[in-house]
Amino acid sequence: MNIKEFGVRVRRRETPFYDRIYRAAKSLRKFEIPSISPLYSFLYYERKTRLNLWNNIIRVFYYTPMFKTQCKNVGKGLYLINGIPLITGNLTIEIGEEVTIFGKTTFNGTKVVDKPTLEIGDHSYIGYQVGIYVGSNVSIGSNVLISNNVSIFGEDGHPIDPILRRNNPPSRDSIKPVVIRDDAWICERAIVLKGVTIGEGAIVGTGAVVTKDVPPMTIVAGNPARIVRKI
């Protein structure tokens, strides 16, 4: 009998002997030691401080300089959180001052136009796992909040016709700019589609699918997004 067969017999608890081994192993899995508050509280904050220090060293001396080489312009105070965004396509990136971007994000430029452009204004925030897919241009204003898992599409991605979809990129007709004005807030898991302008100070609710322009100082929600109320 090999080790694998022995493990199967223990899990099946085929005999009292295997049952005792099973119970002993399960008891060991539940074993705990007392949590001595001063000691483990110190260890918790020691670990937190050490990891924060290490992450900041990597951010300052590794991630941020690398990311800047892939941008046309970057203002002062860029802050990358936990890594570096994935950049695909021939994308021109311009970033204002004091911008915060999560490392787990994707910036993609279409291959249909020569120089797709992504612009991010001063003091804006790009959250965790945001995907920005640029057709011709995606312009994000100043003091904009883009929450986690938001997707912004400046193109269809693929032709609608299944025959064309096999071998052809989307046509230029399917590419339109996206504009997000100053002080807008795009909530978690929202989707913004091509050709949309989101007005100044507007809020896009969680999970909304924005298919048309959002007026300034309004809240929209739903699929498709509709005006809920004025701010």
Automatic annotation (TrEMBL):
Its EC number is 2.3.1.18. Pfam families: Hexapep, Hexapep_2. One of its GO terms (molecular function) is galactoside O-acetyltransferase activity. The keyword Acyltransferase applies. Keywords: Acyltransferase, Transferase. The keyword Iron does not apply. Belongs to the transferase hexapeptide repeat family. PANTHER family: ACETYLTRANSFERASE C18B11.09C-RELATED, SIALIC ACID SYNTHASE-RELATED. This is Galactoside O-acetyltransferase. It comes from Candidatus Scalindua rubra. The lineage of its organism: Bacteria, Pseudomonadati, Planctomycetota, Candidatus Brocadiia, Candidatus Brocadiales. The gene is lacA.
